[in-house]
Amino acid sequence: LKYFGADLSEFEKNNALLQIEGLLDQLVDAKEYGSILNVDSCDWDLLKRFAKKADDSGQMNMEIYGIEETKERLNRLIGIGEVLAQKYDVVCTNPPYMVVGSTEAKLVQYVSLNYSNSKVDLFSVFMEKCSKMVNAYGYYSMITQQTWMFLAGFKKLRKQIQKKDIINMIHLGSRAFEEIAGEVVQTTSFVIRNARNISVLLFFIKKTGLRRKRMQKS
């Protein structure tokens, strides 16, 4: 890395090096954490300028061997970091459902450190992650298990959500997915705005009782 940033001032080069090293540390286990990985925002224009030109002084030695390959990897790293750190106006997803405690130890540790309000299940971790991905006054929409609304383990997450606007919600309960029978997966779908406005009109529908009545009639 010390050969890169040939067109930068010494201050800019040192700043870029610090940010690159921090980005490398954050992405070291990226495949382990996937979409829940948190990446700090950097000065992406500076990092792209840093990776643009290397100073080899016209000499060939073992230290600069493969520098073009390093340049390619560096640009790829910066591109990945920029995408992962990006904020959005709208995020929409159907997250995975899995108890965090049943996953790999490294993932359990990462979730505990970075998602203390939602660490019970991966779907709730994604709820917290989506709230971080949207801009102020942005929206995130999800279909998740309903357990976060009732169980004590999700109390911190509920308090976090109370600071935002639930624009609408449909409490679907069981059989929301045709391919999943029985009462195992009970869901709710919602849109949340990443802001709090006490004058906003909210809209809620509870379909759980209606579905049971139809089943009893049939």
Question: How does this model look, in words?
Answer:
There is one protein chain. The chain is an alpha/beta fold and 218 residues long. It has eight helices and five strands, in the order H-H-H-H-E-H-H-E-H-E-E-E-H. Strands 1-2-4-3-5 form a five-stranded mixed β-sheet. The chain is elongated, with a radius of gyration of 23 Å. The termini are far apart. The mean pLDDT is 88.
Rounded to the nearest angstrom, the distance between the terminal CA atoms is 70 Å
Summarize the helix and strand pattern as letters. Answer: HHHHEHHEHEEEH
The largest sheet has its strands arranged as 1-2-4-3-5
Mean pLDDT: 88
**What's the tally of helices?**
8
By DSSP, the count of extended strands is 5
Q: Which structural class do you get from the secondary structure elements? A: alpha/beta
Q: Give the CA-based shape.
A: elongated
Rg computed from alpha carbons, rounded to a whole number of angstroms: 23 Å
| Largest sheet report | 5 strands, mixed
Helix residue percentage: 40-55%
Low-confidence stretches: none
What fraction strand? 15-25%
Output the keywords.
5-stranded mixed beta sheet; 218 residues; 5 strands; 41% helix; elongated; alpha/beta; 8 helices
In brief:
The protein is of the alpha/beta class and 218 residues long. The protein is built from eight helices and five strands.
Write the layout of secondary structure elements.
Elements: H1 10-27, H2 30-33, H3 44-52, H4 67-85, E1 88-93, H5 105-114, H6 122-133, E2 134-145, H7 155-161, E3 165-174, E4 186-193, E5 203-206, H8 208-217
